[in-house]
Amino acid sequence: MDVHSGTFDPNEVSWQGLTLTPTAAAHIRELVSKQPDMQGLRLGVKQTGCAGFGYVLDTVTQPETEDLQFETDGAKLYVSRKAMPFIDGTVVDYVRDGLNQIFKFHNPKAQHECGCGESFGVQAE
After folding, report:
1. Beta partners for residue 35, in sequence order
2. 28 contacts 76 by C-beta, under 8 angstroms
3. CATH topology for 16-122?
4. Which residues form the Core domain (predicted)?
């Protein structure tokens, strides 16, 4: 049995990355075109909700030094290395949901979601 000890360093991991769908990339480009100082969006996670974690999107005017950048068709998505263990491999989409248009996250690391879809949980590897 292989037992690992020590600490996890997100800077020493090779990430699969995040993907933007064409509709998500188009929406980010539209947001950036309306705000000249904006460079893209930052996707993060925070502890919240009944399942454990929730997604957080913020505008980015100046990327952080620890941010990883994922770009699709000129649309930039920034992610903190600290968030990557929870969202690596996620596909970010922008969809119409009823009368609303929202970002949707297809996260292969999410083991379960709450009933309302606002939070998700991950299983330790």
Report:
1. none
2. yes
3. Hypothetical Protein Aq_1857; Chain: A; (2.60.300)
4. 18-118
